[in-house]
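User:
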Amino acid sequence: MRGEILGKAKSVRELMKGVKYSIDYYQRDYKWQDKQIRELLDDLSSKFLEEYKPEHDRKQVAKYPHYFLGSIIISKKDEASYIVDGQQRLTSLTLLLVYLRNLQRDRSEKEQVNIDELIVSIQFGENSFNLDVAERRECMEALFDGKLFEVTGQAESVQNLVARFADIDECFPDEIREAALPYFLDWLLENVNLVEITAYSDDDAYTIFETMNDRGLSLTPTDMLKGYLLANIGDPDKRVRANQDWRSRVLDLANLGKEVEPDFFKAWLRSQHAMKIRARGKGALPEDFDRIGTESHRWVRNNSAPLGLAKSDDFYQFIERDFSFYSAQYIRLVDASHQVSEGLERLRYNADQGFTLQNLLLLAPLNPDDSEQVIVQKLALVANFIDILLAWRLWNFRSIAYSTMSYAMFLVMRDIRGLDPEPLGKKLHQTLLKETETFSSNDRLRMHQQNRYAIHRILARITDYIETQSGNQARYDEYVRATGGNRWEVEHIWADKPERHLDEFSHPADFADYRNRIGGLLLLPKSFNASYGALTYAEKLPHYNSQNLLARSLHESSYDHNPGFVRFVSESGLPFGAHDQFKKADQDQRSALYRSIAERIWNPDDLLVLNPGHD
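Assistant: Predicted structure:
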């Protein structure tokens, strides 16, 4: 069969059941980030929820619409299946299946959908993963068994596996977690399809891979939008100028990353023009917000009248004024999301939390005739609002996933569109005051497998705040560095030794819960964590005194000969205090301290200040 190429559409069940896949030598590591996972889950859940109704029998799922998830390319060698293209998708699909397996673990057998055979097969009495990659096995076994897996020192692919698994838990819609779960699983396994293209030689497989990835010449939505706008500009000189400016700015967007250009057009048009969003449920039709996300070029053409596109000069201004202004601001947002920018620090903080709805909210109040000062004020206010909202939700174990927050954020976006700074701040402040869960709603914040990265970032903010308020240099970038030899790690003040705490915790599970609470955590360099992590508190305390101020504040000497910190403690009134021992009561005091610091960092009243200071 050498030289033969076969293509066949398969359901997820057909593709994954009883088949062993390996990854060839020229394949990349697992590289998907939270954006790709969130988009995958949102696409799947949205398609399912369009049809699902609680009163349906499960057999009705067979009539639900199918969903095409793309193609994969397989090279058959020595009876083994090697993935040439599509391993990012298959790996992510495997993670989703593992998550869904664990999610239904406590249900009755009748309510469960057996998906183990799509994830593993039994060989010599041991589980063998259907997507078999040696360096990932230990990690996948831990995830499969619902256990924590320590990523310190692990390969990038393994770290990404754990991070994306946490993203799945964070993003998975609440509407599907309970009664709808078996329906969703049935639909996912039977009605979600991929095309498997199988070649029987490496040469054929790689030729297909190159052809599919390098020779796509079809027009993009951006090309079609440009063609429509330019075709309606009657003046040849203006058309040439608009075309040159368009090409230049699109190139600037493309140079920032593969997805930046299409993401910009969705964010721009939604932020300024979307008036409705599709409701959840069967039969709900896509509205402005949704159509812009899938067919922006067609939406603009069909909505030319509401957009004010009638005369030739309208189309010219749409490019030269609107497109030029909003694309320039979007480039600014992308830059500020990657590195801390003075006055716009919170854009970076929000991006680090993986909040993909941020940019359309930031663009919403902007107007092309805004001054630079007004633009910065508006961006700072919206970023502050987002930062507070995310912090509150994460503190209360609430999801910040796209699927969970898209509708609420659409309403905010629509409400703040075009507002000047003062009414903008008031509107955002009023919106936050309607929230029922703040820092005071939860005095038991703890770190677990799914929120460990969010907790790391919260600790980075708290640690950096104390340093900068004490007159020291900002070190947020340093604190959030979670990979590489100079990375920072979450340090447990209590070593994982429950036997040391039997006087206060009779059961290891109770100790583990308390050990992971926010007040018992610090951020320290990896080198410290590796050297001192297992020591007793009394042994660690002198070493803490040489670290950042959050760690040093445990030691009594930090309150002497440290004028910047002492001044900050005095002026803030925060309940700092040394701890010569660290018992349960000390842990509670530190948790209360962290909560008080958080209330200062994420304070809604800051939105009423027209020139919000940067952190």
